[in-house]
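thread from #wetlab-drylab

HS: before we spend reagent money on co-crystallization trials with NDP, can we at least see a predicted complex? here's what I'd submit
DV: go for it
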Amino acid sequence: MTATLIDGKAFAAGIREKVAAHVAPLKSDHGLTPGLAVVLVGEDPASQVYVRNKGEQTREAGMASFEHRLSADTSEADLLALIDRLNADPSVHGILVQLPLPDHIGEAKVINAIDPAKDVDGFHISNVGLLATGQKSMVPCTPLGCLLMLRDALGSLSGLNAVVVGRSNIVGKPMAQLLLADSCTVTIAHSRTRDLLEVCRGADILVAAVGRPQMIPGDWVKPGATVIDVGINRVPAPEKGEGKTRLVGDVDFASAVEVAGAITPVPGGVGPMTIACLLANTVTACCRANGLPEPE
Ligand code: NDP
């Protein structure tokens, strides 16, 4: 058996089209342009690529993009002052601080300084609490993208066994909350989990968010399971030439695709969905701020 490929690239393009279709009447009928501010501290090359892509896709959807690039030695106080200004700026509906931050800056302090209504990453403690208690919140973009793909692939998720490998605040934990809210029976696995193989084999839905290249082989996958690979790992690719690299997920795609019912590739799976959901969250924030109906 060969699994169905879940095409995150095409799915994300569809979401971006819907976002753009929602943005147009906000402008023409209400004079509103949803605005996303992205703050990058330092010169981390991967973060620079993410920030550039976010800016481009924001503008392509007809929204306003405000990029704030600060030097790596920016003080915590200066960053907090910028967040205050963005919180007060009515043209900014969403604020995203690109992680990781340099060591001298307290990540939690900065995230919790963002107005929760503008916290389009959904990492503010208020949004975390709202999500955990089933109330309207801003939902973290990567897990939201995974959930949308799962619903599309499976329809109802009710009663399915879901295993999330990874317990980070930005992926694993919110992913587990979303699956629980969709009535899955959820297991969260992590580096101390005993017999991870058996845990994974029980999963109708297996979400890998670990950051270890190809650590989940096909024989850990239950036949017919739906596999969502969040991992983005750069590994050497000598076959492409000296010093070349390629991206792989946390799942060993070649063996898992033979066992799973459906699977996301890397690249082209979860990755494109994250920015699409960020744009959708920004439009939602703009609508909420102005008392207008939210996109579905
Ligand atoms: P973190 O490093 O914050 O968390 C990794 C998690 O994996 C931890 O909970 C850790 O457990 C667990 N883990 C580590 N080793 C093992 C192991 N051997 N067995 C089981 N669990 C293990 O990573 P993130 O959640 O931030 O990211 C995970 C991956 O997803 C990365 O590859 C990242 O690049 C990617 N990512 C992709 C995004 C996208 O847009 N597609 C967005 C965000 C992340 P413990 O808590 O016990 O240490």
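DV: The longest strand covers residues 35-41.
HS: ok that's useful, forwarding to the group
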